[in-house]
């Protein structure tokens, strides 16, 4: 058994800034509590930052912990060799205490809605029993009509 507090300092996760539209930081909760079945992170979005468009090979749960954010779901319309057309299908507001379940392979983005405030959430990435590693595929996008160029 391991106990930790999400608000205490420690275990920052180095993140790729190309995965976000602005200043974002992250704490590795799963590393602190030694979870092997889930990757768990406390993510802080500052000044209107949000994730780039992405999908996961496993299910994900988000628990909003501070501020106001949103989850946006997208649909791929047509595939081209290096890019594809997209359409936003849903925009879900996230307030403190809200919990949302995102099925695997869902094209989405999430983050802060306010340029003046921080939004944070806990992300629980559920590792499938069929896969030994949770993977995320990141895309550049205009968030309106097209996406492509996988972000490394």
Low-confidence sequence ranges: none
Shape summary: globular
Describe the strand arrangement of the main beta sheet, using strand numbers.
Answer: 3-10-11-6-5-8
What class would the helix/strand composition place it in? mainly beta
| CATH class category label | Mainly Beta
Protein name: Cupin
Domain Cupin type-1: 40-126
Pfam families: Cupin_1 (PF00190)
Organism: Candidatus Nitrosotenuis cloacae
Give a structural overview:
Pfam families: Cupin_1. This is Cupin. The chain has one domain: Sandwich (Jelly Rolls), CATH 2.60.120. The chain contains one helix and eleven strands. The longest helix is centred in the first third of the chain and has 5 residues, at about 30-35. It is about 5% helix and about 50% strand. Strand 10 and strand 11 (about 145-150) form a beta hairpin. It starts with about 25 loop residues before the first strand and ends with a strand. The protein has a six-stranded antiparallel β-sheet, with no helix packed on it. The chain is mainly β. The mean pLDDT is about 90. It is globular.
In short:
This protein is 3% helix and 52% strand. It is mainly β and 152 residues long.
Topology:
Elements: E1 24-28, H1 29-33, E2 38-45, E3 53-56, E4 60-66, E5 68-79, E6 83-95, E7 99-102, E8 107-112, E9 119-126, E10 136-141, E11 146-151
Antiparallel strand pairs: 1-2, 2-9, 3-10, 4-7, 4-9, 5-6, 5-8, 6-11, 10-11
Features:
152 residues; mainly beta; Jelly Rolls; six-stranded antiparallel beta sheet; 11 strands
